[in-house]
Design goal:
The chain is built from twelve helices and 27 strands. The chain has a six-stranded antiparallel beta barrel. The chain has a six-stranded antiparallel barrel with strand order 2-3-4-7-6-5.
Length: 501
C-alpha cells in the first residue's frame, strides 16, 4: 500500500522508557579509560560517530508546514428521506494538516510537496503557515506548484536573512550511502532520522516522474516535503511517500531526487510554467516472459499497448504492439522509462524513436508535444465507461487443445458472444471461457471473457489460429508467448506474457 505522507489530523504522542542492552554484567562499573571495554561502543569503521554536528547546521533551515483548507464533503445520506431533511448538497468543512519543508534561499523561498498544501484534488490550501526551528511563524503564499512532480514552492517574508540549504547532485548518490532526514512526523517538529540509500533510480510505475531514491530512514506522516541530506549537508531528495502495508513505517521510503526537483523548483521560483514533453502513447513493461517469447534481452524496452488517434505517437507511425528500445538515443530500461525520457524533452523537438515491430527493427521520427494537465490528460486517455460483461460459455463449443498448453478454455468468437460481451460484431479472436487456477495464465491475470487477438505480435482470428501460434512458439524453443488481449470495457488492448507448459 502506498502512502503519500504529508498530512495528519492528529498528533500522536507517547512516553516509553527504552532500555539498551550494553553487553556488560548487571551493575558493572566501567572506567572510561578502560579501552578494552570502550571498544564495545566505538562506531565501526566508516560509520559516522554522530549526526549531531551535521544536524545542528541543517536543522534551522528545515520547517514545519501547517495548512488549512475548505473542502467539500458529500452528504452520505443524499437521496434518502433523512438526507432530504438535512439538505442534499455537499457541505463545506475546514481540513487541517501538517507537513515538512526546507528553505532554499535567504529571502524565504520554501520547498515542499504539492500534496502537503493540497488537501483535495481541486486546488491548493486556503491558509499556509510556516514554522521555523526557533519557533518563529510566518504566513506563506504559494508561489507555484507542479502536480506531476508533486513539488511546490512557498514564500515567507522575514525581517532578516533566513538560514537555507542547497540542492546537491542526486546522480552521485549510491546505494549504501548514509543519509539523514529531518522533518515533522506526526506533528513532532524537528525530528531527525538516519539511514542509508537503499536504491537509486527506483521505478515504481507511477508516471512520468517515477524515479525515486529509496531509503530505510524512518519517514512517517508529516515527513512529506522534508529534505533528505547527504553527509555533506546537501539536499539530495525530497521525502515523498512510503510503502506501509500496516499503515506505519517499515523501512521502505521514497524521495524525489534533487536532480529532478532542482530545475522544477528554479522554474517555479521564477514564475515560469512547467512544460514537459508528451507522445501520448500508452505503455506497459516488457516482462521477462514477454522478452523470452521474442528472444529479447531482459530489462530492455517498453511495449506500446495503445496509441490514441491524433497524438504525436500516432502521427509518428507508432502502433500497438511496438516495443520501444530507444528514445532520442537513450535506451529505455526499467530505470529510464519512455515517459521519463520524453518528459524531459522540450515540446516541439523532433526525436528519433527506435522500435521493434514484429521482431524487426524500425526507426520513426516524432515531434514532441506539450504534456496536457492532469485533468485534460485524464479526459483524453480515459477508457470508456466500464461495462458489466455477461459472457456465458456457449456449452464449451469451439474449445481446442490450446487449453492443455496455456491452461485456457477458449471459444471461437461469433456474433452471439460479441453481443454478450458488448463488443463490435466484427471482432475476431479466441474468447477465454475458463482459466485454470493453477496455470501461469491465471497468475498473469488472464480472465474469463478476455478475447485473444494476437500471439507474439501476429493476429489471431480463431481458436485454430491460436493453436497454430502456440505450436510455432514451442517449435522455435520459446518458453513463453506474448498474448494480446482485448478486454471488454477497457480501451485498447493489453499484452501479457505467459509461460508455456
Amino acid at each position: 500500500m502506498r502512502y503519500a505522507y504529508g498530512v495528519t489530523s492528529a498528533l500522536l504522542l507517547g512516553g516509553a522508557a527504552l532500555s539498551l542492552a550494553t553487553g556488560f554484567p548487571a551493575g558493572a562499573q566501567v572506567a572510561q579509560n578502560d579501552e578494552s571495554r570502550m571498544q564495545a561502543v566505538v562506531p565501526r569503521a566508516g560509520a559516522p560517530a554522530s549526526f549531531a554536528d551535521l544536524t545542528a547546521q541543517l536543522q534551522p533551515a528545515v520547517v514545519n508546514i501547517a495548512v488549512r483548507q475548505k473542502v467539500q464533503v458529500e452528504n452520505p445520506l443524499a437521496n434518502t428521506p433523512l438526507g432530504a431533511m438535512m439538505g442534499q448538497g455537499a457541505q463545506a468543512r475546514v481540513a487541517e494538516a501538517v507537513g515538512s519543508g526546507f528553505i532554499v534561499s535567504a529571502d524565504g523561498y520554501v520547498v515542499t510537496n504539492n500534496h502537503v498544501i493540497s488537501l483535495d484534488r481541486k486546488g491548493a490550501a486556503d491558509n499556509v503557515t510556516v514554522k521555523l526551528a526557533d519557533g518563529a511563524e510566518y504566513p506563506a503564499r504559494i508561489v507555484g506548484r507542479d502536480v506531476d512532480s508533486d513539488i511546490a514552492v512557498l514564500k515567507i517574508d522575514a525581517k532578516s536573512p533566513l538560514p537555507f540549504v542547497r540542492f546537491g547532485e542526486s546522480s552521485k548518490a549510491r546505494a549504501g550511502d548514509w543519509i539523514i532526514a529531518i522533518g515533522n512526523p506526526f506533528g513532532l517538529g524537528g525530528s531527525v532520522t538516519s539511514g542509508i540509500v537503499s536504491s537509486v533510480n527506483r521505478n515504481t510505475g507511477s508516471g512520468a516522474y517515477d524515479h525515486y531514491i529509496q531509503t530505510d530512514a524512518s519517514i512517517n506522516s508529516g515527513n512529506s516535503g522534508g529534505p533528505m541530506f547527504d553527509m555533506r549537508g546537501n539536499v539530495i531528495g525530497i521525502n515523498n511517500w512510503i510503502v506501509a502495508p500496516s499503515g506505519g513505517n517499515i523501512g521502505i521510503g521514497f524521495a524525489i531526487p534533487s536532480d529532478t526537483a532542482k530545475p522544477i523548483v528554479e522554474k517555479l521560483m521564477a514564475g515560469k510554467a512547467i512544460e514537459r514533453g508528451f507522445l501520448g502513447v500508452q505503455i506497459q513493461p516488457v516482462t521477462d516472459a514477454m522478452a523470452d517469447s521474442l528472444g529479447l534481452p531482459h530489462n530492455r524496452g517498453e511495449l506500446v499497448r495503445g496509441v490514441p488517434a491524433g497524438m504525436p505517437g500516432a502521427q509518428a507511425g507508432i502502433k500497438p504492439g511496438d516495443i520501444v528500445i530507444k528514445v532520442n538515443g537513450i535506451e529505455v530500461t526499467p530505470d529510464t522509462s519512455l515517459s521519463t525520457i520524453v518528459a524531459n524533452i522540450a515540446p516541439g523537438t523532433r526525436i528519433p524513436i527506435d522500435l521493434l515491430r514484429q521482431g524487426k527493427p524500425l526507426t520513426v521520427t516524432a515531434t514532441v508535444a506539450r504534456r496536457p494537465g492532469q485533468d485534460e490528460l485524464a479526459k483524453t486517455l480515459a477508457p470508456p465507461e466500464q461495462r458489466e460483461s455477461p459472457f456465458n460459455n456457449a456449452n464449451g463449443k469451439g474449445e481446442g487443445p490450446t487449453s492443455d498448453t496455456l491452461g485456457l478454455r477458449v471459444l471461437d468468437m461469433d456474433a452471439d458472444i460479441a453481443q454478450q460481451l458488448r463488443v463490435p460484431g466484427s471482432t475476431r479472436g479466441a474468447v477465454i471461457a475458463r482459466v485454470d487456477s493453477d496455470s501461469d495464465a491465471a497468475n498473469q491475470g488472464l480472465q474469463r471473457g478476455d478475447i485473444v487477438v494476437g500471439v507474439n505480435f501476429q493476429p489471431i482470428t480463431s481458436v485454430s489460429a491460436l493453436d497454430a501460434a502456440i505450436k510455432a512458439a514451442k517449435a522455435a524453443g520459446r518458453p513463453s508467448v506474448t498474448i494480446e488481449v482485448m478486454r471488454p470495457g477497457l480501451q485498447g488492448t493489453i499484452y501479457i506474457g505467459v509461460r508455456l507448459k
